């Protein structure tokens, strides 16, 4: 088993079962051409810029989903954990704006950009699953983001074609390869395993698997919007210059 497969969740636990049940969709998400481009330093800048802006908008709704998790939480301890997560995400939005500025995207531009269809569909899907179900439904919808980015980083580090020197996207890779983030991703997978045991995950596996699979597909579309933006940028450039 590859390092990224054995790094999250326990053998026989709910997280790995969910991941295995949507293996093709999970592969398409965690090793998307967008990820290849980050790993090898070949991702077109317009693709990354589009992603960065939409990721900021995504974070806002991610915080809202965590707020819903406080309401849905099964214990006071879980409520405290989710409350801390909200504060961390809101702080991350400020850091994200500064990160965007480093890529030549001023805060005013980020804030003025509307949510893309991909951002809307993904974030509202997660919140809808949380509103319709219980804490396990919501956590399963969130897991492909939290755990998936941890796996993406491990896949990049294991990529034999990775550009380790002079890669413009190395700071992004470092963020998710960082031990702190990896620990958070592992904790999120372990929580899925624990909730699976306490909230009847085995009996509900079909519906939970459908949620997890759809979230993985929406993650892949979130990457794809960056590549689509880059293709549109190039097409516009060619049209102007022919």
From TrEMBL:
Which Pfam families does the entry link to?
TENA_THI-4 (PF03070)
Species name: Dankookia rubra
Gene3D superfamilies assigned to the protein according to its UniProt record, in alphabetical order: Heme oxygenase-like
Q: Which GO terms describe its cellular component?
A: cytosol
Name of this chain's protein: Thiaminase II
Q: Which SUPFAM superfamilies match?
A: Heme oxygenase-like
Q: Which InterPro entries match?
A: Haem_Oase-like_multi-hlx (IPR016084), Thiaminase-2/PQQC (IPR004305), Thiamine_Salvage_TenA (IPR050967)
Thiaminase-2/PQQC domain span: 26-228
Stretch forming the signal peptide = none
